[in-house]
Structure formats: structure tokens, C-alpha cells
Design brief:
- The complex is a heterodimer.
- In chain A, helix 3 packs antiparallel against helix 4, helix 4 (78-93) crosses helix 5 and helix 8 (185-202) runs parallel beside helix 9.
- Chain A has 2 domains: 6-157, Globin-like (Orthogonal Bundle), CATH 1.10.490; 168-278, STAS domain (Transcription Regulator spoIIAA, 2-Layer Sandwich), CATH 3.30.750.24.
- In chain A, helix 10 (246-255) links the parallel strand 4 (238-242) and strand 5 (263-265).
- Chain A has 11 helices and 5 strands; from the N terminus they run αααααααββαβαβαβα.
- By secondary structure, chain A is α/β, with parallel strands linked by helices.
- Chain B is α+β, with helices and mostly antiparallel strands.
- A 5-stranded antiparallel β-sheet of chain B has the order 1-2-3-5-4, covered by helices on one side.
- The longest helix of chain B is centred in the middle third of the chain and has 20 residues, at 40-59.
- Classes of the chains: A alpha/beta, B alpha+beta.
- The A-B interface holds A 182, 184-186, 215-220, 222-223, 246-248, 250-251, 254-257 and B 19-20, 22-23, 26-27, 30, 40-41, 43-45, 47-48, 51-52, 55, 99-100, 106-107, 109-110, 112-113, 116-117.
- The complex binds adenosine-5'-triphosphate (ATP) and magnesium ion.
- Residues 52, 56-57, 60-61, 85, 87-88, 90, 96, 101-104, 106-112, 131 of chain B line the site of adenosine-5'-triphosphate.
Amino acid sequence: MTDVGGSHVAEQGTAVELVGLLSVEGRDVAGEWVKQVAGTLKGRVSVAELSRELGELHEALVQALGQGAADVHDEQMSEVRALLTELSRNRARQGFSPTETAVGVFALKQVLEPVLQDGTSEEIRAFGRLSRVLDGLGLFTIETYTQTREELISAQAEQLMELSTPVVRLWDGVIAVPLVGTLDSARTQVVMEKLLQALVETGSEQAIIDITGVPAVDTQVAQHLLKTIVAARLMGAECTVSGIRPQIAQTIVALGIEFDGIVTKASLADALKLALRKSGVEMVARKAGQL
Amino acid sequence: MTAPWLPDEAPQIYAITHNRDVVSIRQTIRVLAQRCRLSLVDQTKMITAASELARNTLVYGGGGAVKAGLVEKDGRRGIAALFEDSGPGIADVNLAMTDGWTSGSGLGLGLSGARRLVDEFDLVTEVGVGTTVTVIKWAR
Ligand SMILES: Nc1ncnc2c1ncn2[C@@H]1O[C@H](COP(=O)(O)OP(=O)(O)OP(=O)(O)O)[C@@H](O)[C@H]1O
Ligand SMILES: [Mg+2]
């Protein structure tokens, strides 16, 4: 037993009582806990897996309480927190609800509840204290769960942003970005950086930015476009903006944005034709019947 | 300017505190613009004006809110949006409304451009108190 210091005799008494609740002679508390939780998860986590998780948790909890831990944030609880973090993260990733996750902790209260009927008054008081500790652990579980979900969501949003902005190679020396959907500053920036990077990687000298799928172009998006075109020019490449629909053209004019000196084409096809011509590719229509 | 909101439908208020709010305001305005049957060109103009004003509210006003909804006057329907912040205010309105003038690193076209994109434009500002910009686009 670790030294808990002379002034902690009362606390040590408490610790013994709390540990006593969790490790009863002739009773498999951890096993009962597993059974209780397995019932609520309806087989979505195997009993073997639960036994491992809750067995370790039970052991760590007994140890922490034995060392005088009274709160989830206590130093002695670090192992318990680590195990709970792992458990909540797994549940969050596997798509369990917050309730299904926290029940893993709260079920232990149910297992120990009979003490309220047939326990001594010390045991009943100890149960009250242990309940508070378990409530803290349950809340900790929900917090970790939420944090994990938020991380997942922002990771997905980032992936989506990457996905929705592909830079495609149309021909040797010609790349294009078809922009689709609402452009916010972050997304426009990502696209433009990817475009410049693709120019370098593919050694292309022609880039087409197609905005057919963009519902509105405001000053911020226009500024990103203009900056990219200037940057591409400095890198020795030429940009063509295609797919400026009538309502966008009228809006740009009313806003007063000047696209002077920037090559624009009505469609992606027209822009490609121009880019090919500029890179020296000639296209000849074949006569019918001729191979 | 007080917007003649539809009597049977209260305008809604949306917070402008994040970049993503600017995007969702564009979508809100689009839905309203379609409901009062603005042409595609007018829809795009109103959405773009809202985008500019929302971003100014966020960037220069330090955040605020927009009240948006349908309006009616002389039997005509339209869409109105009132952007409000309690930021530093604009000391020289004429300068701020000048094409190409920016105190930041923008194109300096948002405010003056927004005025050209809508049918009615009203700016009330007081240094140290805040800025309110109201815009209306009527269906033709
Ligand atoms: N709500 C506001 N509160 C305080 N100052 C404002 C506000 N809105 C605009 N301004 C001032 O007016 C100037 C001009 O605004 P405007 O929207 O025309 O240009 P910008 O935002 O600088 O650039 P952009 O072309 O990207 O919109 C701003 O630079 C800013 O100094
Ligand atoms: Mg602006």
C-alpha cells in the first residue's frame, strides 16, 4: 500500500470502504458489470471485448480508489482516464450513441445498487460517495466522446473539401479545376493552392478554372481568382476562366470587378481548344469513312 | 430606412460570427429570393450583395447579425436584409463608398458594389456605436 500520510487516516478509511464495494468476497463484480452493459449494447460489442475493457477498468478503478482518489480528475485516476478515453473514442468511431457509451460507466452503479437494501450504513454511505465518483467518470466519458465526434466531423469536412476540388489533367501541359458549389474563402484558397502546386508537379503551362458550377462570385472569391492568375503568370503559366454564366457576368460587372487582361471563355470546351492551340496541338476533324 | 416587412411573416434574425455564417446567409437569401420569384440575375445580385455585407459585418464590425425576410410595397414583393453590428462604425462614409478604397486588404468594392447590386440601399453608421446597412431587391 502506498503511503497516504498520517493526516489522511479518515480518507484511508473511506478508500477501504469504496474498494470494498467493488471487490466483494465471492462476487464477480466485473463480470456482473459486463453482463449489465452487454444487455444494453445488444451484441454490438462482443462479450470478450467488453470483458477486457471493463475488466481493466475495474482493476484500475479499484487501484485508484485504494490510493485515495475521490474525483475523476485526481492524479491517481490517470490510468482510469486513459482507459475511459480509449473506450469512448472507440465507441464514437464505431457510431455508438453518447448514451450507449456512458452506460458503460453508469451500469456499474446498477450492479452495486443492491447494497442500498442489504448493506450496512457505512456501505450505504460509501455507495453514495462512489456514485459521485462514477457520475464524474460518466461525464468524462461523454466529454471525450463528444470531442472525438467533433474531430471526426472536422476531418470529414476537410476531406470533403479536398474531394470537391479536384485538379484534373486534361492534356499534356493542360490542367483544369472545375469548381462546383458555394465558394467560401477557405475553400477558394485550397483550390487555388492546389492549382498552383499542380502546375509545378505536372509542368503544365495552361490552366483552366471552370466556374460553371459556382452560384455566386463575390469580391473575395474574385480576389482569390485574380491572385491565383497573377501567381500562375509569374510561374510562366497562363490561366483561362471558363463557364462564367450570364448572371455571374452581370454581377461581376455591377460589383465593379475588373477582369481586364484575363482570358475568359464561355465553356470548358472552348477553353480547352484555346489551351491546346496555345500549347501547339492542332486538332483536325477526320472526314467520314477515313481512318 | 424601415423595411416594409410582410405583415403575416416576421423576418428572421441570423447571427454573423463565423465565416461559415456568411455561407449560410447566402443560402438563406437564395431561398427567400426564390420565394419572391426574383429572376436568376436578380437572385445572384442579391445573394452577392448579402455576401459582401455579411463579410463586412464580420470582418470590420467584429460580428453582428442580419435580419432578413420578404417585404411588400405598392403591391410589389421583394426581399430585404438588414445587417447590423456594434463595431467601430465608419468615420468617412464617402471614402468607404468609393470604388477601390479599402482599409484592409480587399478590393474595396464590397460596399459600393453592393449598392449597385440592389434597388434600395441605406447605410447608418456612428463612430464607436456601430453600422447598419439595409438593402432591398424588388421582384420585377
Ligand atoms: N460594418 C463595417 N464597420 C466598419 N467599417 C466598415 C464596415 N463595412 C465596411 N467598412 C469599411 O469600409 C471599407 C470599404 O468596404 P468594402 O466592402 O467596400 O471593401 P473591403 O471590404 O475592404 O474589400 P472587399 O472588396 O473585399 O469588400 C472597408 O475597408 C472598411 O474600412
Ligand atoms: Mg467588403
